[in-house]
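Journal club side-thread
Mid-discussion, someone asked how the predicted structure for our own chain would compare to the paper's figures. Pasting it here so we can look after the session.
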Amino acid sequence: MHGSESGSEPGAAGGSGVDHAFLALERELAVFLRRARANSGEMAREVHPELEAAAYGLLVRLESAGQQRATDLAAYFGVGKATMSRQLRALEDLGLVAREPDPADGRAFLVHLTPDGLDRYRTVRDARRERYVRKLDDWDRAEVAELARLLHHLNARAED
Protein backbone atom coordinates (compact mmCIF):
# COMPACT_ATOMS: atom_id res chain seq x y z
CA MET A 1 0.00 0.00 0.00
CA HIS A 2 1.29 3.49 -0.84
CA GLY A 3 1.91 6.09 1.90
CA SER A 4 -0.97 8.23 0.69
CA GLU A 5 -3.36 5.29 1.03
CA SER A 6 -2.55 4.57 4.65
CA GLY A 7 -2.38 7.14 7.41
CA SER A 8 0.05 4.99 9.41
CA GLU A 9 3.03 4.89 7.03
CA PRO A 10 5.92 7.38 7.23
CA GLY A 11 5.24 10.53 5.22
CA ALA A 12 1.54 9.83 5.00
CA ALA A 13 -0.95 12.64 5.26
CA GLY A 14 -2.95 10.97 7.99
CA GLY A 15 -5.89 13.09 9.07
CA SER A 16 -4.03 16.39 8.68
CA GLY A 17 -4.21 16.53 4.88
CA VAL A 18 -0.47 17.27 4.77
CA ASP A 19 1.83 14.74 3.14
CA HIS A 20 5.03 15.13 5.13
CA ALA A 21 7.12 13.22 2.59
CA PHE A 22 6.27 15.77 -0.09
CA LEU A 23 6.82 18.67 2.31
CA ALA A 24 10.28 17.29 3.13
CA LEU A 25 11.01 16.81 -0.58
CA GLU A 26 9.94 20.38 -1.35
CA ARG A 27 12.10 21.77 1.45
CA GLU A 28 15.19 19.78 0.42
CA LEU A 29 14.77 20.66 -3.26
CA ALA A 30 14.46 24.36 -2.36
CA VAL A 31 17.73 24.20 -0.42
CA PHE A 32 19.40 22.26 -3.24
CA LEU A 33 18.21 24.71 -5.91
CA ARG A 34 19.29 27.74 -3.86
CA ARG A 35 22.77 26.27 -3.53
CA ALA A 36 22.85 25.27 -7.21
CA ARG A 37 22.02 28.85 -8.26
CA ALA A 38 24.79 30.19 -6.03
CA ASN A 39 27.23 27.59 -7.39
CA SER A 40 26.28 28.49 -10.96
CA GLY A 41 27.30 32.06 -10.28
CA GLU A 42 30.62 30.95 -8.83
CA MET A 43 31.30 28.57 -11.71
CA ALA A 44 30.38 31.23 -14.26
CA ARG A 45 32.92 33.61 -12.73
CA GLU A 46 35.52 30.83 -12.75
CA VAL A 47 34.96 30.36 -16.50
CA HIS A 48 35.24 34.12 -17.05
CA PRO A 49 34.98 36.99 -14.53
CA GLU A 50 32.40 38.76 -16.73
CA LEU A 51 30.19 35.72 -17.39
CA GLU A 52 26.64 35.98 -16.06
CA ALA A 53 25.41 33.07 -13.94
CA ALA A 54 22.43 32.51 -16.26
CA ALA A 55 24.74 32.08 -19.25
CA TYR A 56 26.68 29.25 -17.58
CA GLY A 57 23.83 26.87 -18.39
CA LEU A 58 24.30 27.64 -22.07
CA LEU A 59 27.87 26.39 -21.87
CA VAL A 60 26.65 23.20 -20.18
CA ARG A 61 24.04 22.65 -22.89
CA LEU A 62 26.39 23.36 -25.78
CA GLU A 63 29.05 21.04 -24.37
CA SER A 64 26.60 18.18 -23.87
CA ALA A 65 24.39 18.59 -26.95
CA GLY A 66 26.82 20.12 -29.43
CA GLN A 67 26.08 23.00 -31.73
CA GLN A 68 22.54 24.34 -31.58
CA ARG A 69 20.35 26.98 -33.16
CA ALA A 70 19.58 29.93 -30.91
CA THR A 71 15.85 29.19 -31.25
CA ASP A 72 16.40 25.62 -30.04
CA LEU A 73 18.40 26.91 -27.06
CA ALA A 74 15.68 29.42 -26.24
CA ALA A 75 13.05 26.66 -26.33
CA TYR A 76 15.20 24.34 -24.21
CA PHE A 77 15.67 26.99 -21.51
CA GLY A 78 12.15 28.37 -21.80
CA VAL A 79 13.26 31.94 -22.55
CA GLY A 80 12.42 34.36 -25.32
CA LYS A 81 14.49 34.87 -28.44
CA ALA A 82 15.58 38.34 -27.28
CA THR A 83 16.89 36.99 -23.96
CA MET A 84 18.73 34.17 -25.72
CA SER A 85 20.18 36.54 -28.29
CA ARG A 86 21.48 38.85 -25.54
CA GLN A 87 23.08 35.95 -23.63
CA LEU A 88 24.67 34.50 -26.76
CA ARG A 89 26.00 37.91 -27.78
CA ALA A 90 27.62 38.26 -24.35
CA LEU A 91 29.20 34.79 -24.66
CA GLU A 92 30.39 35.65 -28.14
CA ASP A 93 31.91 38.92 -26.93
CA LEU A 94 33.83 36.94 -24.30
CA GLY A 95 35.12 34.55 -26.96
CA LEU A 96 33.37 31.54 -25.41
CA VAL A 97 30.96 30.76 -28.27
CA ALA A 98 30.86 31.38 -32.00
CA ARG A 99 28.13 31.29 -34.61
CA GLU A 100 28.31 29.91 -38.11
CA PRO A 101 25.68 29.58 -40.84
CA ASP A 102 23.48 26.49 -40.59
CA PRO A 103 24.17 24.41 -43.71
CA ALA A 104 20.58 23.15 -43.59
CA ASP A 105 19.12 26.70 -43.54
CA GLY A 106 21.20 29.63 -44.74
CA ARG A 107 19.03 32.07 -42.76
CA ALA A 108 19.85 30.42 -39.43
CA PHE A 109 23.04 30.13 -37.43
CA LEU A 110 24.47 27.33 -35.31
CA VAL A 111 26.07 28.27 -32.01
CA HIS A 112 29.01 26.25 -30.68
CA LEU A 113 31.66 26.53 -28.01
CA THR A 114 34.98 27.93 -29.14
CA PRO A 115 38.09 25.93 -28.24
CA ASP A 116 38.81 28.46 -25.47
CA GLY A 117 35.19 28.26 -24.25
CA LEU A 118 35.30 24.47 -24.21
CA ASP A 119 38.62 24.43 -22.37
CA ARG A 120 37.47 26.95 -19.75
CA TYR A 121 34.15 25.16 -19.25
CA ARG A 122 35.75 21.72 -18.88
CA THR A 123 38.30 23.02 -16.38
CA VAL A 124 35.50 24.39 -14.18
CA ARG A 125 33.30 21.31 -14.67
CA ASP A 126 36.14 18.98 -13.69
CA ALA A 127 36.84 21.04 -10.56
CA ARG A 128 33.12 20.87 -9.67
CA ARG A 129 33.14 17.08 -10.07
CA GLU A 130 36.14 16.87 -7.76
CA ARG A 131 34.22 18.88 -5.15
CA TYR A 132 31.33 16.38 -5.42
CA VAL A 133 33.76 13.50 -5.03
CA ARG A 134 35.23 15.07 -1.89
CA LYS A 135 31.81 15.91 -0.40
CA LEU A 136 30.48 12.42 -1.04
CA ASP A 137 33.64 10.41 -0.40
CA ASP A 138 32.08 8.72 2.63
CA TRP A 139 29.01 7.63 0.66
CA ASP A 140 28.75 4.12 -0.70
CA ARG A 141 29.05 4.10 -4.51
CA ALA A 142 25.63 2.44 -4.69
CA GLU A 143 24.15 5.43 -2.82
CA VAL A 144 25.73 7.86 -5.28
CA ALA A 145 24.39 5.80 -8.19
CA GLU A 146 20.93 5.67 -6.58
CA LEU A 147 20.90 9.44 -6.06
CA ALA A 148 21.88 9.94 -9.71
CA ARG A 149 19.15 7.51 -10.82
CA LEU A 150 16.49 9.24 -8.73
CA LEU A 151 17.51 12.72 -9.90
CA HIS A 152 17.45 11.50 -13.51
CA HIS A 153 13.95 10.15 -12.95
CA LEU A 154 12.83 13.46 -11.41
CA ASN A 155 14.38 15.44 -14.29
CA ALA A 156 12.74 13.20 -16.88
CA ARG A 157 9.36 13.75 -15.23
CA ALA A 158 9.93 17.51 -15.20
CA GLU A 159 10.50 17.47 -18.98
CA ASP A 160 7.16 15.73 -19.64
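Post-session note: Helices lie at 20-47, 53-65, 70-77, 81-93, 115-135, 141-159.
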